[in-house]
Every structure is written in C-alpha cells, then in structure tokens.
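Retro notes - structure team

What went well: the batch runner handled both jobs without manual restarts.
What didn't: labels got mixed up in the shared folder, which is why I'm recording both outputs here explicitly, each with its sequence directly above its tokens.

Job 1
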Amino acid sequence: MWPLDPSQKEVLRFAVRCRVLTLMLQVLTRFLGSSTPILYWFPAHLLQDQEPLLRSRETVSWKPLAGDSLSGQKVPRNSIMGLLYNWKTCSLVTQCILGYFLTYWLLGLLLHCNFLPWT
C-alpha cells in the first residue's frame, strides 16, 4: 500500500480532514446543546408569550377542550402534554416549536439506534 501515488495521498488527506471535522462538529454541538441553557430558554420564552393555553394555566386549572376529551381520560399535569393534546388549537409559533423538538427527538432516536451519526 505504501508508497502512495499523489492522487491517493490527496484522497486520504481529504477523508481524514472530513472525518476530523465531522467529529469536531458532533462534539461541539453536543457540548453546546447540553451546557447552554439559552437554547432552551428562548423557545420557552416564546411559548410563554405566544401560547394562550399556557398563560391561562396559571390562573385556571387545566381542562381538555370539550370536544376533544373522552370520558375517563386523565387531565394532563404536564403542560407540554396538554399542548400536544390540544395541538389544533395551539398557535402557529407553538406548533413550530413543538414540531421542531418532536422531529429532533424522533430523528435522533431513529438514527442513533441504527448506529448513524446524530448530534
């Protein structure tokens, strides 16, 4: 295998640089995602400002909408689950934020379980 001709050396250098860059980006995004709370504060701030279902939660006890509840269905104590149960009545900002985090979670679950790189 050694000595390599110049074209093989260039391909090897390119492959090594791409792998190092990929590893650095994965580690960097993991560190930033786990140690920077501002990435989660901003969507929470938008949800508190834009979503009337969350604003009314502080003053009124949470109840599912009349047409959406089944008899014997438990009322969610988690505000995010309440928003998911009432998806159609949420504002567009709330649907985008919840959709982004649910998609990120689902893609991460599927890709990580299949041994694919995911950050």
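Job 2
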Amino acid sequence: MGLLTALARGLVRGADRMSPFTSKRGPRSYNKGRGAKKLGVLTSNKKFILIKEMVPQFVVPDLEGFKLKPYVSYRAPEGSEPPMTAKQLFTEVVAPRIEKDVKDGTFDPSNLEKYGFEPTQEGKLFQLFPKNYVR
C-alpha cells in the first residue's frame, strides 16, 4: 500500500468519524432512539411488560372561559420587573409569617418546616447542589 493511499484512507476515516452516529451506521441491533421514556420493562425472553405507574399522566386544567391565548408574540414587550431573587422571595413570603408568629408567641425555631424550610434534599426529584451537597 502506497503512502498516498494510506493518507487518503486516514483522511476519509477521520472525516467519517466526524459525521453523526445514527442507527443506520451501527450494527443491526443498535437503536439510538429519540429520548422517549420507557413505559415498562423487557423480560429475559424479550416480552414487554407495560407498567401503568410508568405511563405519564397529563393533568390538564379546565380552560373553559379562559381569555388568554397560548401564543405569545415575539414582538411582545419584555417584562418590566426584574427576576426575583431568593432574598426578595424570603422577605415577601416567609418573613411576614415568621414575624406574625413571633408577635403571637407561637414561633418555634425547631419547626421551620412550617415556613417551607427543608433540612435535607433526600427524596427530592431535583436536588439542590447534588455534587457538593453534604450527605
């Protein structure tokens, strides 16, 4: 095999590796899929068992008499209020409830779950800071 043939073959192979890997390029058993969630399990004898708890259920509110339309034009003006920070949310929602309980004498520092405080992130679907959260 000549030098030019080897160079051309290497260039072609390199270019081939850069193209997207689809199910047409893989073996017959390879199925890339499109990100759909599985609705059940596949048994060892290749039989699919549908699990009703894994089927998504969409909860749609009754929109009868609702005046707003689902489309928002790109020409709509940008919002005038800045995005809310954690401090603003605390001062507007939680702080008045704590102040009221302090005035009434019913505030208990050991029962902060009443105000929305969560001591652990265990059991949450999306945990805050999962990489550096102390377990």
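One thing worth noting from job 2: Helices lie at 3-18, 86-104.
We'll revisit the folder naming next retro.
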